[in-house]
Specification:
homodimer; 424 residues; alpha/beta; Aldehyde Dehydrogenase, Chain A, domain 1; Aldehyde Dehydrogenase, Chain A, domain 2; 2 domains; 7-stranded parallel β-sheet; 4-stranded parallel β-sheet; 15 helices; 16 strands
Chain lengths: 424, 424
């Protein structure tokens, strides 16, 4: 076993021991731990900012772009926001301990399906140091130990934040090892984590496609993935065009860089011209580039020759994360469904129509984590769902699908209580 | 792309298309399909038996042992049992379509969490040809398409059974591709299946540790594993010794070759001698070999010098699946919990005690799929739980844990219905 493997296995053993102590803790004890973590973050602000300054300096020297440096940079306001976020999580209800089901068999054996922590959760993430706190506290809240592995760029910030969180745990009598951060930037560390299924019960990669691919290829334990959002909005011929405009503009323009923004609009041929003259016009006025199939091109090109371009085949499968929208004219809703199933990423897709039957057909046929009728896809979000917190939006189908919050950081076990029952 | 890969990808594409058709089907349509599958199995009995005879002949020529040949062999009675099993599944309630949650946000947006089929489920199994039908029909019942990959020994039987199932589907208007069997015995086929995450939503390996390991190492999609059952029973000092005897004998002797049979007993030192004189005596009379730690050896060796032997370190981690039981004396329940957490496989573990507080402590501390108080571990079974069917017993923590039945062959999606809501 290499030194690196030995080091990381030692983290695994410590996390496993901490997870056993954590699952004994009451909700009250865990919440006290969370509040102490928030306090420590604020108390250790100077140390965290000094560590962050090192990361920012290195990032500048390495020529990272301004957006990346902004995401990396901490300041007292951002640390206060992290601490506030933790206090909000402390105030949420604890899903652990819920009796999901409870029944008694004819032989008198009582069976309870009880919600319990998963155990040890690995979080592998990139760039933004606040993920260190955001992700860890959701795990602590649900009684899970966390092994964090952040990006190379924010290593000093992450170490300082994780130290504050760990001290906070200890302050409140939770195990200090409840939150552990791997301080090794070597890429090999990710592989070791992925193979360590004796210590890690699941891994949540948060980052770009490359990171997720690496984790998926190597992981022996379950991975909860958060892949691309190639979200598609269908405008039916029976759509209210004012509503269609409001929804499409919101879903594309309000925040184009997020996974629940739309990347493609499919327009029914019968109303395409009217849609182009209203929504199309508005999108172009807002500077959205429209990548069009042949029929959409014919309708939109006359409005703005610069921003309207022919779509390339790869555009239908691209998460632009920018003011770019692919536009295709379809002859019926089934063609839209077929397109959505073929090219979408099964994240968040919707239809605008006044026809309930058409809508229900669409909602049944489109197999995405979240499907919408007459609303913006931008609502795919733990906060907007009312979950109070979010560790990500899963594009997986098993265990967690769509917005993933506290409940998705738990599992269940069966507790059977008898009076001497044996099997005949 | 190799020919093999192309062939298997073609199966994937066909299964994906079938899964889309299946999720449109009502429970009634799916149940009609199941009944037609049962009818076809009986109608095609001669063809199935002829194919099976080829497999049995080859197995005999290859020198397979009598137990394996028995598991492989079909006869009219076994085919009738398969068909009856399918009819029983048809009579079960369909979990698909259940509204798991339903709430409306302050902005009027309604959110429903709805139970839906997973999509395409891969089943990789060994030896017994009846798994072909058992596993496939549970998938069809829940609206999933199935890709089956059975063992080399039963290839002809599997092809014949899968053909009958597929014809049954078509008889009832379900897609014939709802059940597909990979007819390739090449081991490489498993690897291709495991990497085909564009067509397969999850894989359930049913078989020995080697098969599961291969699938875990290669799979890119979620794997629902059914690893060993190293089940451990703890006898507390406050145990009713008659109850302890009844439970231990049942859990070890009634059917030693199954995963929910116990492999280790941990006995509290205070009652060890009385336990040895009663349960120990009975186990030895029934021919159970006892592999003992030092203290157990001292207590048991005088009763039967032949069947009582010292435990080797690996015995605590072994699934004997035989009339062999490891026995250890512990000084308190926490030592038993520590042993169970360290050496057990987190499948099914229990405690016999009259003290409710001790029991609840144990039930909280032991993190296994099923934990028992005063009952035999042999109840870890879909039928015994009242689920009416079982595709296996999951030793995974995510998605499915413990007995896995129809509900565990489904997932959910969020359906959002609005009136033009956009995000502010």
């Amino acid at each position: 076993m290499s030194d690196l493997t030995a080091t990381i296995h030692d983290f695994g053993r410590r996390a496993r021991a901490a997870s056993r102590a954590l699952r004994r803790c009451s909700s009250e004890q865990k919440n006290q731990g969370l509040l102490a973590m928030a306090d420590r973050l604020v108390a250790l602000q100077d140390e965290i900012l000094a560590a962050n300054a090192q990361d920012v300096e290195k990032a500048k020297a390495d020529g990272l772009n301004a957006a990346m440096i902004d995401r990396l940079t901490l300041n007292p306001k951002r640390i206060a926001a992290m601490a506030d976020g933790i206090r909000q999580v402390a105030a949420l209800p604890d899903p652990v301990g819920e009796k999901i089901k409870d029944w008694t068999r004819p032989n008198g054996l009582n069976i309870q399906k009880v919600r319990v922590p998963i155990g040890v959760v690995g979080i592998i993430y990139e760039s933004r140091p606040n993920v260190t706190a955001d992700a860890a506290v959701l795990c602590t809240k649900t009684g899970n130990a966390t092994i964090l592995r952040g990006g190379r760029e924010s290593i000093n910030s992450n170490v300082a934040i994780a130290k504050a969180l760990s001290l906070g745990c200890a302050d409140a009598g939770l195990p200090a090892d409840a939150v552990l951060l791997i301080p090794v930037v070597d890429r090999e560390a990710v592989k070791v984590l992925c193979e360590m299924d004796q210590f890690l019960d699941c891994i949540v990669p948060r980052g770009g496609k490359g990171l997720i691919e690496t984790v998926v290829s190597h992981a022996r334990m379950p991975v909860i993935k958060h892949y691309d959002g190639i979200c598609i909005m269908t405008i039916d011929r029976e759509a209210d065009l004012a509503m269609a405009e409001s929804i499409v503009v919101n879903a594309k323009v309000q925040r184009p860089g997020v996974c629940n923004a739309i990347e493609t609009v499919l327009v029914h041929a019968d109303i395409a011209d009217r849609f182009f003259a209203t929504t199309g016009q508005t999108l172009l006025q807002k500077g959205v580039q429209l990548r069009c199939d042949e029929r959409a091109l014919a309708g939109l090109k006359p409005i703005n020759a610069n921003l309207v371009v022919p779509a390339q085949p790869e555009d239908w499968r691209t998460e632009f994360l920018d003011l770019i929208l692919a536009v295709r004219v379809v002859d019926n809703v089934d063609e839209a469904i077929e397109h959505t199933e073929t090219y979408g990423s099964h994240h968040s897709d919707g239809i605008v129509t006044a026809n309930a039957e058409t809508a229900e057909h669409y909602l049944t046929e489109v197999d995405s984590a979240t499907v919408y009728w007459n609303a913006s896809t931008r609502f795919t979000d733990g906060g907007e769902f009312g979950f109070g917190a979010e560790i990500g939006i899963s594009t997986d189908k098993l265990h967690a699908r769509g917005p993933m919050a506290l409940e998705e950081l738990t599992t269940y076990k069966y507790v059977l209580r008898g009076t001497g029952q044996i099997r005949g």
